[in-house]
Design brief:
three-stranded mixed β-sheet; alpha+beta; 2 domains; three-stranded antiparallel β-sheet
Length: 150
């Protein structure tokens, strides 16, 4: 493992323990050259997952795309980074529990909306407005009515 500070590859593990989610290992490492410490996480390599886009193109699953969408919809809302990370973890777990090698993007979008609806109604509407591509105010109002009726 290369040191992120001096770029030397002589580092050693000084502490190892399960991470908070129990799905990865947190390792404290120390560089033998500069003596600085840093943390790494080790996760099980998952089965490659392919996302089928609306236009039937296929691309590798990318967690950061879900995170980016959720972060944008939660912008300036009273939602912590930990809550967002937990939400994305739940979505990712649901995706990988399907045990499919391919998943349509609309399934992922619906999962995100279901989770956001429980977390924050404003974030949900923001995400839904982009995801569902509201064309006019009436479609937007219909979505708001659904939330208000619940």
């Amino acid at each position: 493992m290369k040191c992120p500070f001096c770029n030397k590859d002589s580092t050693r593990v000084i502490d190892s323990r399960p991470a908070e989610d129990n799905n990865s290992i947190r390792r404290r490492r120390q560089c033998d050259e500069c003596q600085r410490r840093f943390t790494t996480y080790e996760k099980i390599e998952a089965i490659p997952l392919v996302v089928i886009k609306k236009d039937n193109n296929r691309e590798p699953y990318d967690r950061s795309k879900i995170e980016a969408g959720v972060f944008r919809s939660c912008h300036k809302r009273p939602i912590s980074v930990e809550q967002i990370t937990a939400l994305v973890d739940e979505i990712e777990t649901a995706i990988f529990n399907r045990e499919d090698k391919e998943i349509p993007s609309h399934v992922i979008g619906e999962l995100v909306m279901d989770k956001l609806k429980d977390l924050d109604p404003v974030a949900y509407v923001r995400f839904a407005s982009v995801y569902r591509e509201f064309k006019d105010v009436n479609t937007f109002m219909n979505e708001l009515k659904k939330i208000l009726d619940n």
